[in-house]
Amino acid sequence: MGMSAPVVHMRAGLRAAGYGDDEVRALLRRGELATVRRGAYVSGPRSGDATLRHLAQIRAASEQLDPGAVVSHLSGAVLLGWDVWGLPLTRVQVTRHRRTGGRRDPSVHVRAAPLRDDEIQFVDGVAVTCAARVVTDIARTVPFEQAVVVADCALARGDVTPEALAEAIARQKGWPGAPNARRALGFADGRSGSVGESRSRVAIMRAGLPPPQLQREFRDDRGGHLGTVDFWWERQRLIGEFDGLAKYGRLLKPGQSVADVVVAEKIREDALRDQDTRMLRWLWVDLHPFTATAARLRARLG
User: Which one-letter DSSP state was computed for residue 234?
Assistant: First the structure.
């Protein structure tokens, strides 16, 4: 479970290996090292991927912070390999088991909160709060839509159960943001297959549209699998599909191109339409604002 953080070189370790400050500066100029925080470096140019950069920041912070600091909140989600969306990966977020003493600087956000021993695990040697605690801490501290994205992903991967989330949020009764977390966790559903599907569910709910069934499977008269759709409204026999480029990437098989997948998807759509259904698709750009897509859905749903 989780993602492997890039190897981080600490200034003290480089000195011990015989690298002087001038040599380190030269490596930085040539792009052979990149700074992730003061006194901490990774090999090679800084990746354009925000998640990989944050993993390096987590590794560096874990080397420099006091032993009692446990990676938590959004940084915990990144370390566990979950999807995050719409949240800044600027500061490493950690929690310390104490009543006071939280602080925030440009690179680290330290929170002071109760933390039980059974709420701590280790990923690649880094102490991080357990999956349920990561989800509930995020859900208490971020907007509803972003919280649903994280909770859906954690549930879909099987890293946490609804029962574990209910127990974790019950422990946080009276904590700041707990009512918001309960709303987000009550809406979360592990059948969402992507960030786009999670955001679509939130947009459908906010538009006041009837809630769809998720991941509805269709079979032909002989029991052959025709396809599983993102959203299904039974009474109106309407299929809703979120189309993202990442979705086509997931469907790629060895030797296939994206064009092959698009053709296969067209054949799949025709087969589904033959089941006396209608289909409405939308893209990432249609999620915000969702107004036009909501109007199209509303017209078809009556």
Answer: T
